[in-house]
Amino acid sequence: MRNETEDAVPATARDATPDPVDARLAARLAELRAERGWSLGEVAERSGVSRSTLSRAERAEISPTAALLNRLCAAYGRTMSQLLSEVEDGPAQLVRAAEQQVWEDPACGFVRRSVSPPHAGLRGELVEGRLTAGADIAYDRPPVPGLEQHIWVLDGTLEVTAQDVEHHLAPGDCLRLRVWGATRFRCPGPEDVRYALAVVLP
C-alpha cells in the first residue's frame, strides 16, 4: 500500500485555506462513501489508499494526486472526468475555453484540462494533458475496465506503457487502446509534452 506522501500534497505545502475545487472534491468523496454505506476501512481495502489519507482527503486537509484519484475512481466506478465534473455545475453543450476546468497535480508535474467534460447521453469526453519534462505518472488500474482511450500528442514527446508494451509518441502520433490494467505516462523531455486524450466509456 502506498504511503501518504505519494498520494497527496499536505495542506502545509499549499495555502492554509483549501482550494475551492479541493473542498468540493472532498465533500463529493465523502458523499460517495456515504451513499454506499462504506466505512473508511472498506474504501481503503477497495482502493489501496490508507484510511488516514482517505480521512484527510474527505476533510480537504490534503490535495489528492492523480494516482490517488485514479484509485478512488476505480473503487467508485467513475472516470476521473466524471468525478471532477460532479463537483462543478451541470456541463453546458458549449464549453468555452475560459470555462474549461483545469486541475493540477504539482507533485507530478501534471496539468489536466477538461476540454469536453462528461455529459448526459454522451459516452465520450476530451481532455488536454500536460506533463513537465521528466514527469512520470503510473496508474495501477483503469477507473473503468475496458475504457477506450485515444492519445494524440500535440507538442513534445510522450512515452505510454500499457499491457507491458512501451510506446514512444512524437508530435502528431496517436495511440488507440482499451485499458484493462496498469498504464504509465512519462515525458522524457527535454521539452514538456502536451497531448489530447479522448476517453470513451465501454
Protein model, in words:
The protein is of the alpha+beta class and 202 residues long. The protein folds into two domains: 4-64, 434 Repressor (Amino-terminal Domain); 97-200, Sandwich (Jelly Rolls). The protein has helices spanning 4-7, 20-36, 40-47, 51-58, 66-76, 80-85; strands spanning 8-10, 62-64, 102-105, 110-116, 124-131, 136-139, 147-155, 158-162, 165-169, 174-179, 183-186, 193-200. It has a six-stranded antiparallel sheet with strand order 3-4-5-12-7-10, with no helix packed on it. Strand 3 (102-105) and strand 4 form a beta hairpin. The protein is globular.
Write a brief caption for the model.
The protein is an alpha+beta fold and 202 residues long. It has six helices and twelve strands.
Radius of gyration, Cα only, in angstroms? 16 Å
Task: Give the CATH level 1 class of the largest domain.
Answer: Mainly Beta
Structural class from helices and strands? Answer: alpha+beta
Number of beta strands: 12
What is the average per-residue confidence, as pLDDT, rounded to a whole number? 87
Element pattern in H and E: HEHHHEHHEEEEEEEEEE
- The CATH architecture of the largest domain would be Sandwich
Shape by Cα distribution: globular
Q: Please work out how many helical segments DSSP would assign.
A: 6
Q: CATH-wise, what's the superfamily of the largest domain?
A: Jelly Rolls
**What percent strand?**
25-35%
Q: Biggest β-sheet: count, sense, barrel?
A: 6 strands, antiparallel
Task: Tally the structural domains.
Answer: 2
The low-confidence parts are: 1-6, 11-15
Helix content: 25-40%
Side-by-side strand order of the widest sheet: 3-4-5-12-7-10
